[in-house]
């Protein structure tokens, strides 16, 4: 598999982009005209730089608004194209993208458009240049790849072929199956982009909201399967116009982009029996093994865990790390951190084969996290999520696992008052990390996205999306605060059988919960016909409540320590949500 | 005119919102349920706080998903509504907003819906409560205000009327003229919101992109005229769901909101001969009188102006302020500033009646800028634009004006080498200032918006919108950088007859222009059939070029000093643009 990316996906100057693209491991690049025009480096310098970096210039883009015009306009267009062919010779690339005419086409006549494409191709042939014609989703007369294909066939020139772009095809709902019937020698180039399902005009959607594969709602695995079946063997190239990626760190975005292609190639190969470019198969998470909270002084976290009924599982044999356990819920407190403010620093997941999970993560492109290991200690390997959280995998429960590092008490049945399991992890991301986190969670954690919701917080709307394993054993609730708001605190939700009993006991043990306004309970009474006893108990204990057609949800929150807090949740019946309607109350109360 | 605003427009807690709303001068408030539910203050406390602040609680909102359901569901809905009626009694408000059913309506039957509205109204009547029924643009069966009106007539209860919301009516393209035929006694409430023209699903459009009146594309003057003709005499209330306003400073947004109603009332009154709520008539700007650049050391700006051919017009008689002139282009350098970095700090506009312009600005609600005035000095009054820029007006050109402060030389025909006029001001805004700036420029500077464009910069997309006077004598190009990008520098564009001659002379006088990449000129040659002499001269002088159907544009930029630079522009023929296609080249070169 050869990989490529359009320079328009990234921020910075052209040379910065090229360095980042090469460093991320791409084989080639599509150079967008605007990037070259704004560069002080000559085409010869760019050509030489790409050669030194080992990047092929796979395509120059775009030529626009050429075909379907009157003869006089076409003559001017040919003159303009000739100048670009000269430029391409200086750049040392032989393929140019031609977008279907948006602005100047006046004649809806395939004879004329085909003839003009043929004349353009002939002019290009004199320079040894090939033309990849692409139907833009908002083209004036040509807005469907099948129409572009008919014109390419009509013109019938060896150096005229198609560029297929997943966005332009899938955004219009066009069936990509017809790709399979095309002559692979005529498929000159393939541009890939994902996108969220939006009911927005297609031009704005395309210019601002494209995503890397695996981050949106398009079926790119199915799309690429059609392309593969047609026999296309050229590069997989990314062309993603996105307001966020255009302004974030160029090196990070390039690595992020590259990972999306690893994921897509792997999943497409797996779906279609195509053996190339497979990586280690995904390890589906069976549950959360532990969460790690880091900070220079975690005494306040110790106190809360003790009040909740966790059992102290002992200290690590060589590090200032402590373990707390409550049934299957394990919390590791790591005081080796230099940073004072406690934070949710890592997660461990239970899988069938931890080494395979790690191999897959590294093959997809996740960076390995560094961790000091002393002699005689188990070496724990982890990768860093986009926000820096460390992710571990474990396939050995009990004595053979990392728990042995905590001595005898950890592995024994300690007398925890609380019997729980980690229900979900609630993680906050900065506004520019969200899409990358979706890809990480999909490709490396094997979680599937649930629909996006929005929560009204006192600082603005919080975008929220849960991702979960098929059986719900692992759930990650992702939140993004608006750019001007403080970072969203993270929390660990522990599921218990009887949240009211846990709350009563924790209160007796001195835990003060997050207080909830009385108005909330008045509203609860209006929304649900709760009996007075239940309502009174909820009110007394500062418990929150939700209900849907399948069941009910009772939950409460501890105070926040640094950037982390705990939630105790009880799921009744088939309730599958996270109490999203209560989130604004929590956000306001935490403020 | 009574004014009101929905709490959902603003950020912060309910009490913070109420304080800000009162301070901004609103008469009343719509309390959104979610804001009350999240508040620790009881309904009685909120009622008492509003009383102390002098705010009437004009409406509680919303009741949802009540009508058009089966009998069992309706019984549950009535129970829920009764709880809210009790709550409203505690709050001391007698009007509740009822949105047309979105989620639970299953029966598209006006008989049933009308009967259920009637039963709800009867239940409300027992509490002394009135119901304002509103057709949401995405209502399940009722999505048109005329349909809501038919149901209200069918139910025929004295305490059941309509709530009209400009967004729900204008977003669907429904003709608001039918409002005029309605019985004013049945028009219980009026919610106003503007919005940009977007091709987006109406729910997302409504929830995220509403704007205050005067900031979007809706004809709110026409809308309010219909409402006024119907005889509606209740409050004008703002209900604006907007992602930006939800997260910006609550006090500032409340003042901003209040100004939008002053503008709307004034323009509607002016359009319809309605004499209430008029403020001083707008003063249309005839031209730019001067620009002021402030900084603690402006020697580098002096040098650039001298190199461009400006004449030194002398120092101010009592302040460390200097004047430079080139024909009608006047630049004031103010070294009284404490801030070191030079910045574009103020503009003066030429109008027929400066005092009237100032009176209008203050009546709309612009804050007056403070300026020290010494004895014997002319008192110059200014208001502060949303970004802090000071705005002045002048109706006396020559000896009687502020120029007299600069002694004899200023008023005389000084031997400037350059004869120019200020063509446009290019101002950068932070992402959260843009909409407020549009309102300021519309309502106070009497400028009209041109279409929004987007420019690709190395740090992301820059949103750009020009606003101008009808004759083009005053033009403001507004730019907004993405949140993570550095602030956009501002500049002053000076129009001359022969930009090439000015460039040649300035270069001889030692000015180094912003250098332009050679690739730009290759692209220019491809795009336009320019003769070689012109292209060579443009390339030699680092000049930029643009052309449209009406004319051409030649321009160049000086280096940036602090946060400000100058542009020299030449407009050929009827060219009315700003060389937007060249902006990415400039942004990259300035980086």
Folded structure, characterized:
2 copies of one chain form a homodimer. With 591 residues, chain A is α/β, with parallel strands linked by helices. In chain A, strands 1-2-3-4-5-6-7-8 form an 8-stranded parallel barrel, surrounded by 6 helices. Chain A has an 8-stranded mixed sheet with strand order 10-11-12-9-13-16-15-14. In chain A, strands 18-19-20-17-21-24-23-22 form an 8-stranded mixed sheet, with helices on both faces. The longest helix of chain A has 23 residues, at 250-272. The two termini of chain A are 50 Å apart. The model of chain A has no long low-confidence stretch (mean pLDDT 93). At the A-B interface, helix 2, helix 4, helix 8, helix 16 and helix 18 of A face helix 2, helix 4, helix 8, helix 16 and helix 18 of B.
Secondary structure layout:
Two copies of one chain form a homodimer.
Chain A: E1 3-6, H1 14-23, E2 28-32, H2 33-37, H3 43-53, E3 56-63, H4 71-91, E4 95-99, H5 110-125, E5 130-134, H6 145-155, E6 160-165, H7 166-170, E7 187-192, H8 202-208, H9 220-230, E8 236-238, H10 250-272, E9 287-294, H11 299-308, E10 311-315, E11 321-326, E12 329-334, E13 343-350, H12 354-364, E14 368-369, E15 382-384, E16 390-394, H13 408-411, E17 421-429, H14 434-443, E18 448-457, E19 460-468, E20 475-480, E21 490-495, H15 499-508, H16 518-527, H17 532-541, E22 544-548, E23 551-557, E24 564-573, H18 583-590
Parallel strand pairs in A: 1-2, 1-8, 2-3, 3-4, 4-5, 5-6, 6-7, 7-8, 9-12, 13-16, 17-20, 21-24
Antiparallel strand pairs in A: 9-13, 10-11, 11-12, 14-15, 15-16, 17-21, 18-19, 19-20, 22-23, 23-24
